[in-house]
């Protein structure tokens, strides 16, 4: 009986001691605070509360804010955009954020080997030192990948993160002067991928082309480049494209002596013969639309050049979009 009482007393004492240790555990520092870890099942309704993350008072530098660790470098040309979208793993859900973007593959410099732990430790310690808060450390499900991957315009590009087998770590830095900064990376002993986004609002830079601007271009340079929109792979002009045609007609009506050649151009994607015919059909469609606006046919000509006269190199989607154009050339 005494032995039984002694055992029960000892067990109670151990439990009390254990509870006391738990109660005396100090609260986490701001660097150690994390948003709730990813649930076993993905809940796409889970909210992400940025307001719960404390502001960093550290000097974090300028975009993209930090370099790779010593001995490591960018493998190729990184993606650097003043405004773009990047998907970050938040509670296991790939969510889009917009702003200034940096995406890169990171590799070792010659004479060194890539160490996963060295990269992870470098990132963990540095991000903690500047007040970054880890908001996710885990993987996404196959279901989540299938849901979002076709929405991501950078799938397969430099620094592409967000695959089923990747351990993804996401951090957030809140600042009062530079906004919210999202950082995510993944790595193994072969290399790493790093994404940095400085969240900011989109600023519209497109403005309506007017008859006065077309007249000014034709007068000063003898040419005006316009981006009339057509239905995909067709020569039918869209509603917004017709609005631009009306401005061209207005410029021609303001100067009855003005004659123009309408030249159609495409990028280099697809069959060359098809592109040339498409550009010719589109140039003719613009001419017909101008005639419908009471412009005399004798003042107009139309010709398509396909991809033969690129405005810029067809080496990116941005440049290819610049090459898909209509040029108005003043006929002397």
UniProtKB/TrEMBL annotation:
Residues 317-332 have a biased composition (Basic and acidic residues). It is found in: Cell outer membrane. Residues 307-332 are annotated as: Disordered. Transmembrane segments: none annotated. It holds the Pfam family OmpA. Residues 217-332 form the OmpA-like domain. Keywords: Cell outer membrane, Membrane. This is OOP family OmpA-OmpF porin. It comes from Sphingobacterium zeae.
């Amino acid at each position: 009986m005494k032995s039984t009482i002694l055992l029960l007393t000892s067990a109670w004492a151990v439990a009390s001691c254990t509870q006391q240790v738990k109660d005396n555990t100090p609260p986490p520092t701001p660097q150690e605070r994390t948003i709730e870890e990813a649930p076993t099942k993905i809940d796409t309704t889970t909210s992400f509360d940025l307001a719960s993350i404390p502001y960093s008072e550290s000097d974090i530098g300028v975009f993209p804010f930090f370099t790779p660790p010593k001995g490591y470098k960018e493998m190729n040309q990184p993606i650097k955009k003043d405004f773009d979208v990047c998907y970050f793993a938040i509670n296991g859900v790939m969510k889009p954020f917009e702003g200034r973007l940096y995406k890169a593959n990171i590799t070792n410099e010659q004479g060194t080997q890539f160490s996963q732990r060295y990269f992870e430790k470098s990132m963990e310690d540095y991000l903690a030192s500047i007040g970054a808060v880890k908001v996710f450390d885990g993987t996404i499900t196959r279901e989540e990948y299938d849901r979002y991957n076709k929405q991501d315009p950078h799938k397969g590009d430099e620094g592409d993160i967000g695959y089923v087998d990747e351990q993804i770590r996401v951090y957030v830095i809140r600042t009062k002067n530079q906004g919210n900064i999202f950082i995510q990376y993944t790595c193994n002993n072969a290399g790493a991928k790093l994404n940095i986004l400085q969240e900011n609002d989109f600023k519209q830079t497109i403005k309506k082309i007017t008859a006065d601007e077309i007249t000014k271009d034709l007068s000063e340079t003898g040419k005006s480049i316009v981006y009339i929109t057509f239905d995909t792979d067709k020569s039918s002009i869209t509603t917004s494209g017709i609005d631009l045609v009306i401005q061209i007609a207005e410029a021609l009506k303001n100067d009855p002596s003005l004659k123009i050649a309408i030249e159609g151009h495409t990028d280099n994607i697809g069959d060359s013969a098809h592109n040339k015919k498409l550009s010719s059909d589109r140039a003719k469609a613009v001419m017909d639309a101008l005639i419908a606006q009471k412009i005399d046919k004798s003042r107009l000509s139309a010709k398509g050049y396909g991809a033969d006269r690129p405005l810029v190199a067809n080496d990116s989607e941005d440049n290819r979009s610049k090459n898909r154009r209509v040029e108005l050339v003043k006929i002397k």
